[in-house]
Structure to design on (226 residues):
């Protein structure tokens, strides 16, 4: 059983996917964390980010582990914890190099498909419903206006004590949208038969509720996912 959630940066995918997974007792998989983890390692090893062959071999030699503990996702690269490090600005700004390399994506997609062999999943990213699991039981495309996504990101950073500028965040999100939607391989787009939610004016609980309702409508699923 896979629930695929895609959408642009800052649309609230992670929060919604995490809650959904918790509710259904499914494994939560943040595929963006995998792209970030590889970016972190490439930066650390000073791999040429424009050299696809080098990135491909890096991806084959890297062990990425996603571990969920008490509702918090922990990320490890070759045994080293990088949970916080992969959220930094340099990783965020360079992840598109990893994301646009077809053979690197192929490697990560293989790993993502493997996860579904042993678990029921709520998996979020940019290409889950279009490429990774086009036959997912439920596909969701979560969107929100640029203004609202920027506002959410601004508040999130403020809560962490990080001072930023709303306009700067808006520009960064716009740039990331362009990268995600414009790349040749696995661009961000609405998957066939996806349930599209515009969360601009919605609360998180309403979004989760809506998705759960859709899930039940389709499969009569209960908390255990049966
Ligand atoms: O969701 P995020 O911001 O953590 O994603 C980090 C980067 O990985 C971002 O550049 C988009 C990319 N990504 C992707 O191309 N495909 C996915 N399935 C998930 C993320």
């Amino acid at each position: 059983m896979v629930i695929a959630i895609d959408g642009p940066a800052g649309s609230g995918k992670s929060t919604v996917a995490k809650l959904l997974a918790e509710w259904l007792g499914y494994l939560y998989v943040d595929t963006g964390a995998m792209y970030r983890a590889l970016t972190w390692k490439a930066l650390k090893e000073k791999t040429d980010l424009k050299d696809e062959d080098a990135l491909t071999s890096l991806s084959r030699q890297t062990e990425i582990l996603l571990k969920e503990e008490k509702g918090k996702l922990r990320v490890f690269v070759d045994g080293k914890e990088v949970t916080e490090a992969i959220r930094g600005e340099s990783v965020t700004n360079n992840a598109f190099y990893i994301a646009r390399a077809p053979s690197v994506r192929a490697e990560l997609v293989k790993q993502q498909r493997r996860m579904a062999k042993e678990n029921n999943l709520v998996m979020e990213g940019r290409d889950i419903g279009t490429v990774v699991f086009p036959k997912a039981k439920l596909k969701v495309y979560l969107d929100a206006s640029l203004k609202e996504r920027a506002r959410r990101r601004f508040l999130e950073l403020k809560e962490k004590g990080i001072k930023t500028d709303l306009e700067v965040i808006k520009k960064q999100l716009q740039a990331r949208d362009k990268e995600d939607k414009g790349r040749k391989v696995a661009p961000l787009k609405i998957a066939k038969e996806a349930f599209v939610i515009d969360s601009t004016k919605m609360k998180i609980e309403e979004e989760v509720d809506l998705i759960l309702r859709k899930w039940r409508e389709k499969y009569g699923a209960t908390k255990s996912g049966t």
